[in-house]
Design a protein that fits this description.
By secondary structure, the protein is an alpha/beta fold. It is built from 14 helices and 17 strands. The longest helix is centred in the C-terminal third of the chain and has 18 residues.
């Protein structure tokens, strides 16, 4: 059984105090100068041209810029294709019970990870019994949640991964929409959610079957090449849990991408809490990820904990955990790896370092989210699509935090229209 521990990341900063699309929260706006008119034409590589221009002294808020970019560009996702893989989890969302007052949901939750840890520590040398109350069962895994969000934002999406043989019921609708190819049984996660984070208890023996040879044999090399060749966005997710993912990345670089057409692509990576992997393994995969830059635009997404780990492995000095420190960390990681973009999403904000510089936006933090499992994947999906559409860096961050914000308020994956409405209802 694998246990993953999260304290923060984007999983927390976008939660609600009520399930509503019109919830007040605060935001400190940064003023940007931009043109109010934007081109909606794709360039010959399948990307939007970056057409934000200065317009005299006109200044508008970053929210207004993001809203305009959404309204001008979001419809173009119908012309974009995404290929996502390669994990698959059945997520069982659970609440640890503190005190039970009756049947069913009549109980008091263990509200924090600290309280949960204290309960477990007190049982050392003795024993204890902790009830997990089942809240919901849903599709899970970084890949399926990311793909589902990209699909909801309008991109034509294909999926390859661990969805069951036959396909598990929780993935049936997803498989129809993405014409998914399942290569093995899914893993299972019991996600214990707290107000200050979550602990994921994972059973994932079946994921050892996710290898390049298995994908090539079950999908077919020519069919796999065709899927890659058609894609504008390629997202191999969850390297940490997929011990065979390194072989998949190597196969893409060695056999597939050299034969693919030379159109510009976005390659999106989220290592997914690599703490359990060795330092040498992490160094190796970072070098492999950097090689994808030869075939397109590489984006590496990290939560705060992950960014600190990667920053340390790359031999940088520790930085302050504030706006300037996190922006510096993103920039140093990006420059060291030689990739296009690094984004970091702490608990109350998000930053990215790109070829245009380093950027920051605050996020709609809340203490008691409706759901947290999958919030980071929604951030990732929205950021990836916004970058694919060539949104400005700050707009990309804002769209991403608001996509996650909508999700943790409602438990639903938003459309671009939902994100647009969410930003418009963002009260001062």
């Amino acid at each position: 059984m694998q246990v993953s521990f999260f304290r923060g990341g984007v999983e927390r900063f976008c939660g609600p105090k009520a399930v509503s699309s019109k919830i007040p929260f605060t935001f400190q706006e940064n003023l940007l100068t931009c043109n109010s008119s934007m081109s909606s034409k794709m360039d010959k590589e399948g990307f939007l041209a970056d057409v934000s221009k200065l317009d005299g002294e006109k200044k508008v808020s970053e929210r207004e810029v993001a809203i305009e970019e959404i309204e001008q560009k979001s419809g173009l996702t119908r012309d974009l294709r995404a290929l996502v893989g390669f994990d698959g989890f059945i997520d069982k969302i659970i609440h640890p019970v503190d005190k039970r007052m009756g049947e069913g949901a009549n109980f008091k939750r263990i509200e924090t990870i600290n309280a949960f840890g204290d309960r477990i520590k007190a049982a050392a040398g003795r024993s204890c019994n902790i009830e997990f109350y089942p809240c919901m069962e849903k599709l899970g895994g970084n890949g399926p949640i990311f793909a589902n969000a990209v699909l909801s934002m309008g991109c034509r999406t294909r999926y390859i991964g661990a969805l069951g043989k036959p396909v598990a019921p929780v993935f049936e609708d997803f498989c129809k929409k993405t014409q998914a190819i399942s290569i093995c049984e899914p893993a299972v996660t019991h996600a214990a959610e707290f107000f200050d984070g979550k602990i994921l208890f994972g059973t994932m023996l079946s994921l050892s079957e996710v290898t390049y040879d298995n994908i090539r044999n079950q999908v077919g090399k020519d069919a796999f090449l065709k899927l890659v060749d058609e894609a504008n966005l390629i997202a191999p997710m969850n390297w940490t849990m997929l011990t065979g993912m390194s072989s998949v990345l190597d196969g893409l670089l060695r056999e597939i991408l050299p034969q693919a057409s030379h159109k510009q692509r976005v390659f999106f990576f989220d290592l997914a809490d690599p703490e359990k992997r060795s330092v040498e393994d992490i160094r190796q995969v970072l070098n492999v990820i950097a090689r994808f830059q030869d075939y397109g635009k590489v984006i590496l997404s990290l939560n705060l904990k992950e960014s600190q780990k990667i920053h340390e492995i790359l031999s940088f000095s520790q930085t302050a955990v504030d706006k300037e420190g996190i922006m510096k960390m993103a920039s140093e990681i990006r420059n060291n790896l030689g990739i296009d973009t690094v984004t970091i999403h702490p608990c109350d904000s998000a930053v990215c370092a790109t070829t245009k510089g380093s950027f920051f936006t605050e996020g709609p933090y809340v203490e008691k989210p409706f759901i947290t499992t999958g919030a980071g994947d929604h951030f990732n999906a929205a950021f990836a699509v916004a970058q694919l559409l060539n949104f400005s860096p700050v707009s990309s961050l804002l769209v991403a935090v608001c996509c996650s914000g909508f999700y943790v308020r409602t438990g639903k994956t938003p459309t671009f229209q939902d994100i647009d409405n969410f930003i418009k209802n963002w009260r001062e």
